Amino acid sequence: MFNNIKKIIYILSLALIFNFMLRINVFAEVISNASELSPLDKFLNFCNYFYAKYGTILLVIGGIVLLSLLDAFYCFVVKAKEQGKYLKDLSLERERYNIVVEQLNDIIFDFDLTEKKMLSSSKFEEKFGWNLNIQKYNKNFFNEFKIHPEDKTLLNKIFDDMKAFNKQSIIKQIRLMKKNGEYLWCEMKLNYIQRNGKIVRVIGKISDIDHIVKEFSLLKLKSEYDQLTELYNKTTFYDKVKNYIKEHKESTCTLIFIDLDNFKAVNDNLGHMTGDEVIKDTANKIIDVFNEQDAIVSRFGGDEFCVFNPSLSIPLIKEKIKLLCENLNAKYIGNNIEVRVSASIGIAFYPSDGKTLEALIEKSDVALYESKEKGKNQFTIYNKKLEVS
């Protein structure tokens, strides 16, 4: 509408100019007749003459201009009203967003990489004791996080994924430091906004998973260890020995299979509680003898134990086994009953007696059986003659 009015004004203005040019001679005559008048009278005379000739046109143009101004004013009022409503709705949405964010247990953060600004919900300061809201951070925004030194290597992977735009959503488990120096396990989820092939904003969420990780670690610990002796269980022993053999194929290692003698008599005569004490006592004595860092000690099941010991010479192995036999040869008393317990031991070497754990266990078991046959409370090193006999 406004454009149409402008066109009408232009047409009328042209008509007015054209008409004025046609009548310019009459206008000159009027001026000449009024040569004796003062300048002010001449101007008033001119205005009177101009209005008499073009008054109607001027009124029409003035009306049109007024209408256009009213139309523009109406549009301004409507737009101002709409803008006010928009700003009000935007303010309400912002309030709703803040309420939702504050009700979440998770922490929301926003990194503006263009302005180098960082914002986070108040939950961050409540959880960690320090503020992440920074108006101007230096270099990389991840440097503002107090990340555990061992987890900083994950940042390279995060940056690689972000730069390559491989993933729109990136999730990592990291440890963040609290004000008191304690680290919390957190899950960090990152989403980024890119413009023209460049990341301009990173929006993320931090979830406290510390209790979950610790519970999982505890469960994993329980699944790996024998609860009575706190030695590795059979499954873990298999996993660790196989991994060691895989990574140290050229090493010489020793597998020691230990079986208690007369243990059934302990349970039958002294009770199972005493039997448990004998098992724990045996485990401690084995650990005392084989206390090398690389030694893998396991309760294999019941009254059987296994030790996998890398990089020990045969003379040193024999010396340790003799000491172990002496330590395990003990008597236990209860209810005026005395039961003597000892150990029969079989030994096999990797790789000469077997290149797999299963083969080593089989050979050491043959040697252990020989120790039983010879009267118990002794050890036997495997050789092929044992299987022939």
Automatic annotation (TrEMBL):
NCBIfam families: GGDEF (TIGR00254), sensory_box (TIGR00229). Signal peptide: none annotated. InterPro entries: Biofilm_reg_signaling, GGDEF_dom, Nucleotide_cyclase, PAS, PAS-like_dom_sf, PAS_fold_3, Rev_trsase/Diguanyl_cyclase. Keywords: Membrane, Transmembrane, Transmembrane helix. This is Diguanylate cyclase. The keyword Cytoplasm does not apply. The chain crosses the membrane at residues 52-78. Residues 251-384 form the GGDEF domain. The keyword Cytoplasm does not apply. Coiled coil: none annotated. CDD domains: GGDEF.
